[in-house]
Amino acid sequence: xxxxxxxxxxxVSGAIGYFVGMGxxxxxxxxxxxxxxxxxxxxxxxxxxxxxxxxxxSVLLLLTAGLYMALTAWSLLTGWIVVGLISLVLLAPLGTAxxxxxxxxxxxxxxxxxxxxxxxxxxxxxxxxxxxxxxxxLTALLLGVVFLMTTKPSLVGSIIVMAVALVLGLVWGALVxxxxxxxxxxxxxxxxxxxxxxxxxxxxxxxxxxxxxxxxRGENRGPTHIVE
Length: 228
Description:
This protein is mainly alpha-helical. Helices cover 74% and strands 0% of the residues.
């Protein structure tokens, strides 16, 4: 029995696992950018951290199964295989180098901060420009690798495909960065504090007694003279 179908299954499973892990990152980052309290960020960043082992296993399956199929059924000199393997080798450390360290910083700050509104430092880390662009670029590049595996273009065509995938990832990341408005939690607190500092009206102004006119009640009037 040939091991090629099993290797192909493991290869495709690795690609699916990588997409699931990257989807968890994209969902988690979008949720953290909308979070308003430390407790929310704390829960989301722990959920995103669970995708770490999935990334490692998925990349291992992609590379080992892909190398096996390339050596047994194809050739390492085939154009799309060369470009695809190089892309996978580059994708594996990029996620670890750009995403995981920043996730750990956010996790550490969220654990250290008390429950309540987001501190300025934590919010700044959540809105790190790298976190707004890197996941989109990695996802687009992996889509390019999947396109190479299914269409099997020439060497030049494979390079063009990965270049287009990189451009699409950059555009996607730029759109996410532009559609994410800056928001500072301290700004809201400061505005509330300014409202609270507004001096309240004096008690005499709020509860001034009614003015009684003596002439309306007939008081202090002179004696009545009867003219005969």
